[in-house]
Amino acid sequence: MSLPPQFSGHRISGKADAKHTLELYLDYVCPFSAKIWKQVYENVLPFLEKEYSGQVQVIFRNQIQPWHPSSTLVVEAALAVEQIDPAQFAPYSNALFVNQKSYFDEAVVDKTRTEQYKSLSALAANTTHSSLREDKVLSLLQINPVSTASEATNHGNKITNDLKYHIKLGRQTGIHVSPTVLWDGIVENSISSGWTLDQWKEFFASKL
């Protein structure tokens, strides 16, 4: 349930000293993750703030599903946005879910890694705060090519270390698929991506 300060943007609602924690392990290119995100972002978060203010913190956890190769690149873009302005992590995450089909396998199969980084950087500049200039986001993502394999270092980009944290966390916690939801550190299998707001209300009424 801990959240390093450099990833403060992942706390999308509430404060660290809240009595309870709701964690959402989501993949930006997973349709079911998009479904639960939409309900939580648009309806559940305002409900919690109104009815249970200060009682619950909600943390977004990046869960990369490697069978969708673009998932890694999309998460890198979200982490780049967070490095620049943590307050824009949630709005950009929302934009990624809204536009997730642009990063589905069939949509990107013929696109290079650099082309996808450029697309993700443009999305950041177009859908969030003006401080997120496209070139600034891209500078954290891009990797300079080399002429020969012997010159390659395999060091990744300026987001690689941040990415490793989130991958290690999911593995250590034993999260296998998205969406997976935890309540106070324990997987809550009763929660479904198809839940209505009323079902969420019933859940919180039983827990708070």
TrEMBL record:
Taxonomic source organism: Linnemannia gamsii
Source superkingdom: Eukaryota
Pfam family, one: Thioredoxin_4
Record-annotated Thioredoxin-like fold domain positions: 11-142
Record's signal peptide: none
Stated name of the protein: Thioredoxin-like fold domain-containing protein
Gene3D superfamilies reported for this sequence: Glutaredoxin
